[in-house]
Amino acid sequence: HKPPHKWQRVLLKVSGEALAGDNAQNIDPKVTMSIAREVASVTRLGIEVAIVVGGGNIFRGSTWAGCSGLDRSSADYIGMMATVMNAIFLQATMESIGIPTRVQTAFRMSEVAEPYIRRRAIRHLEKGRVVIFAAGTGNPFFTTDTAAALRCAEINAEVVLKATNVDGVYDKDPRQNLDAQLLDTLSYQDVTSKELSVMDMTAITLCQENNIPVVVFNLNKEGNISKAIQGERVGTIIGG
Ligand code: UDP
């Protein structure tokens, strides 16, 4: 019997940039530790947490495509492998504080992690394990935001919680406009028509088609991850 939380099963998306923190070495262990601690606090309440990690702190396919003959697909496969590095690091941090964690990759790397098997992922979650989905969707030309939307729909999670380095979605670029306003709520339509840079179009339309709300929030503020997971108001909420 589970307590009545707003969400029973969530999909947390952690971008590579967020994992980098202010460390020049791609990954900031202070960030992975704070993610682990906050996730631990909510799994103790019985909320099931799946995580999709990005890889932009190590390698972004679109940046490298075309360099010295590197085609986009190969560049994207390198990017997907970068997400696996982040996933293994985050898993190690989680397990160091006693959270049972499984990594599942979208393409086989069986010596390193389990392959993605939907029903098995769900089983892990039901047993209270955290599941980290790595290697994005397994396909070039996609993003880990799209992987987050896809996995969320597949495992019947109720919300995509997008942890970023900004407080949420603004009506205009806050770095260029001092009067930029943080928005509390937005419709999917707002995001697509105003071209607000929340997530790419493939990801946001996948969320819209499946009525998956998206919460965009700042993971650098202590307590925000656990608040977001528990359904407290943080950042900007899009859709339902
Ligand atoms: N990527 C991909 N297919 C996917 C997910 C990711 O090809 O389904 C590649 C792509 O090259 C991308 C890189 O992996 O640039 C890292 O992922 P992403 O940029 O989404 O990470 P984030 O911005 O969240 O750090």
TrEMBL record:
GO terms for biological process: 'de novo' CTP biosynthetic process; UDP biosynthetic process. Belongs to the UMP kinase family. One of its GO terms (molecular function) is UMP kinase activity. Keywords: ATP-binding, Kinase, Nucleotide-binding, Pyrimidine biosynthesis, Transferase. It comes from the Eukaryota. Its EC number is 2.7.4.22. This is UMP kinase. Residues 9-218 form the Aspartate/glutamate/uridylate kinase domain. Pathway: Pyrimidine metabolism; CTP biosynthesis via de novo pathway; UDP from UMP (UMPK route): step 1/1. It comes from Beta vulgaris subsp. vulgaris (Beet). The keyword Metal-binding does not apply. The chain holds residues 71 to 310 of 320 of the full protein. Transmembrane segments: none annotated. Signal peptide: none annotated. One of its GO terms (cellular component) is cytoplasm.
